[in-house]
Amino acid sequence: MSQWLKQIRRESYVLGAGTWTSCKVHLYPDSDGRLEIFDMELLRPAHETTIPDRPADALTLFQDLKAFPRTLDNIPQWMWTVFRAEGITPPVYNPQLKMVEWANKRLPVTETGTDFSAQPQIIDPSKEPGVFAKISRKLFG
Fold first, then answer.
1. CB burial of residue 138 (10 Å; 0-12, 13-18, 19+)
2. Cα of 2 vs its chain's centroid, Å
3. Where are the alpha helices (DSSP H) in the chain?
């Protein structure tokens, strides 16, 4: 079932806009099961945090944006709050190059998310100050 859910998540991805596929599976020994699918994010942090009502920690969100990247404008404010609280710069989708960029690296992105079979390219920030300047302004004002 986990492979099936991962497939749904990949197929739900929209380039630069991200994907959320949250569901609850109800299994019963003596009757048919039930699947509930939600259009909101239901991740929970791996450990308790000091930020109330926070659905996930920065590392979880970082990994999700790396796999299913969003443009700067499509990262919701609540995610920015989590990243700022932990001082983390998130991966960002670059629509001109069709790549996800993070920590001076980039990988190609397809219709179903990041292509992890490719070798990451190293970014020279001195040649591309625009993208990194935008991320820094968005994170730290």
1. middle
2. 18
3. 2-12, 58-67, 77-86, 129-140
Q: Is the pLDDT of residue 126 over 90?
A: no
CA angle (87 as vertex; 47, 70 as ends), nearest 5: 90
Q: Which residue has the higher pLDDT, 18 or 134?
A: 18
Q: What is the DSSP string of 93-128?
A: EETTTTEEEETTEEEEEETTEE-TTSPPEEP-GGG-
What's the pLDDT score for residue 97?
92
Q: Above 80 in pLDDT, residue 108?
A: yes
Separation CA 93–CA 104 (nearest Å): 13
* Token pair in block for residue 121: 């390219």
Rounded Cα distance, 98 and 114, in Å: 10
> Do the bridges between strand 34-38 and strand 99-102 make them parallel or antiparallel, or are there none, so unpaired?
unpaired
